[in-house]
Amino acid sequence: MKKLSEDLIKTVQKLIDSGKGDSKRLHEIFNVLKQGTPLYISDYKYLQSLTKAIEEQKQISEFEKDKSKNKKQNKKSETIKKSEKIQSKGDSALKILKNRLAAGEITIEEFQALKKVLKET
To answer: Can you say whether the dihedral through the CA atoms of 58, 64, 65, 66 is positive or negative?
Structure first.
């Protein structure tokens, strides 16, 4: 029973420190617990409702953080995909240039000039 009382005192102190709930009522509950006096059921239920609300708020906050983190990861992934797509287009264009050079359709000078243009874009 003493452990439960100590846990309740810690819980009430955390609630007071966090600024959640009715400060005056929480201080009264804190004093009652410190004196070792039994807590009214209504006060106990009040503490339960506050701690439940805080726990739910934490879960929502964590969910929002995860959601934000996932959005950032998705944006990063999209950026990488776009970069790879652009790079693959550049690689494809370079392959076409090499094929045209090998087929004798363009000169080495034309190939080098076009390759330079591709690398700049």
So the answer is: positive
Q: What are 38's two structure tokens?
A: 């039994």
pTM exceeds cut of 0.70: no
pLDDT in tens, 18-58: 888 889 999 999 999 999 888 899 998 999 888 888 888 88
Closest of 35, 32, 60, 61 to residue 47, by C-alpha: 32
The answer to whether 103 and 97 have CB atoms below 8 angstroms apart is no
Within 8 A by CB and 6+ apart from 9, the residues are: 30, 33, 34
CB 12 within 8 A of CB 48: no
- Measure the CA–CA gap between 87 and 81, rounded to whole angstroms: 10
